[in-house]
Amino acid sequence: MFLVYRHILAMLVGVIVPIVAVLLTAVELAGGAGYLDGLTAGIGGAFSTGVHLAFWVTLTFVFLERAEVAREARTEIVAAAGPRRSRRGGSTSRRIWTPASTCLMGPVPWSAARPPARNGNGFGRGGTR
């Protein structure tokens, strides 16, 4: 069951995290934010999405592993997965995005320490007194 879990988690993170990063960056840039703010929003959203994916996929597989009712479903899933073939490399998206996501997640904690952007009246975007 662990091999199925690992495969599904890697597939979801390799596909969904980059999509979230690109979409959040595009939304911030379209909203008039600067490039640094757009990249920070994209990287932060991608990191948050990766953490949520890991948590919920792990929770689902913990349930499948522990629940008495799910034991039959688990044996069917493992049987349907068949023998695991060893492939070198993996999918292109996983080979490209997993190292890129790992490298880009490093600066995220520092973005919280950065002061928010201020407009002319001393408030954040669109704020008024």
Task: Report a brief summary of the structure.
The protein has helices at residues 2-30, 35-66, 71-81, 92-105, 108-111. With 129 residues, it is mostly helical.
Tell me what you see in this structure.
There is one protein chain. The chain is an all-alpha fold and 129 residues long. The protein has a domain at 2-82. The protein is 70% helix and 0% strand. The protein has five helices and no strands. The chain has helices at 2-30, 35-66, 71-81, 92-105, 108-111. Helix 1 runs antiparallel to helix 2. The longest helix has 32 residues, at 35-66. The protein starts with a helix and ends in an 18-residue tail after the last helix.
Give the CA-based shape.
elongated
* Strand elements, count: 0
Summing up helix and strand content along with how strands pair, one would put the structural category as: mainly alpha
Number of helices: 5
Biggest beta-sheet profile:
none
Name the beta content range: under 5%
Which spans have pLDDT < 50 for at least 5 consecutive residues? 109-113
What's the structural blueprint in terms of helices and strands?
Layout: H1 2-30, H2 35-66, H3 71-81, H4 92-105, H5 108-111
Helix pairs in contact: 1-2, 1-4
What keyword list fits this structure?
single chain; 129 residues; mainly alpha; 5 helices; elongated
